[in-house]
Amino acid sequence: MYSIYVRSLIAFVTLVTFSCQSPAPKESPIPVPAHSDTAHKRETTALATTLPLGFLRSMDGKSFQSEHLFSHEVIATRLRKLMGEERFGFMRDTWAVESGMVVNNDTLSAEGCMQHNCGATNFIIVVDIIRDKIYAGICEEGKIKTWGEDSVPMLQILKWRSFESD
Q1: Helix H segments across 21-154?
Q2: Spatial separation of the C-alpha atoms in residues 113 and 137, rounded to whole Å
Q3: Which among 164, 145, 159 has a CA at the least distance from the CA of 107?
Q4: The predicted structure's pLDDT at residue 161
Q5: Does 25 reside within a domain?
Q6: Are 96 and 112 in contact, with CB atoms under 8 Å apart?
Q7: Distance between CA atoms of 90 and 84, rounded to whole angstroms?
Q8: Residue 138 within any structural domain of the chain
């Protein structure tokens, strides 16, 4: 009788033990990050084609003049409207020495100056690609004038302005 009792107890414990365990987890494929390099490139390309100034994202390190941005219809039209024809023409015709454009956090900044007179006459153009806003500044013989398509001051313009007014 003792052996029947022990066998029954072992059977009961085994049954309870295995019935309380959850089934083995099914293997799932390795998850692919939502922002893989390929997905990011597609997203960037899509934004570049939908944003009016999205093409500027690819300008990092390039020259404003070499890329003919003073002749680009959208850029030139908006700078003319912003600064006026005379100031735009002065910037375009005098912009000679420059460093490469910098694109950081969807903001492009380009700086140039008058050849042999960089300390006294220089320029800045800043573009907020996402907000679709353009800002510009001219320091001519130490006198600074800035323009913006809205009243939000861009950090790059403020830094440039404070450097030029020292």
Answers
A1: 37-50, 73-83, 85-94
A2: 11
A3: 159
A4: 81
A5: no
A6: yes
A7: 10
A8: yes
Domain ranges, residue 93: 55-166
pLDDT tens for 146-155 read 999 998 878 8
Sole residue written with tokens 């959850």: 22
**Average pLDDT of the residues of the chain:** 79
Angle, helices 85-94/73-83, rounded to nearest 10 degrees: 120
Residue 87 half-sphere exposure, CB side, CA atoms within 13 Å? 21
Angle (CA) 158 164 166, round 5°: 105
Which pLDDT tens digit goes with each residue over 60-104?
A: 999 999 999 999 999 999 999 999 999 999 999 999 999 899 999
pLDDT score at 153 = 77
- Say if pTM beats, i.e. exceeds, 0.90: no
Q: What Cα–Cα distance (Å) separates residue 24 from each residue in 17, 18, 21, 28? A: 14, 12, 9, 12
Query: Residue 46 region, left (φ>0) first, then alpha (ψ -120 to 50), else beta?
Result: alpha
37: in domain: no
Residue 2 lies in a domain: no
Choose between 18 and 161: higher pLDDT. 161
- Tell me how many domains the chain contains: 1
CB atoms near residue 9 (< 10 Å): 10
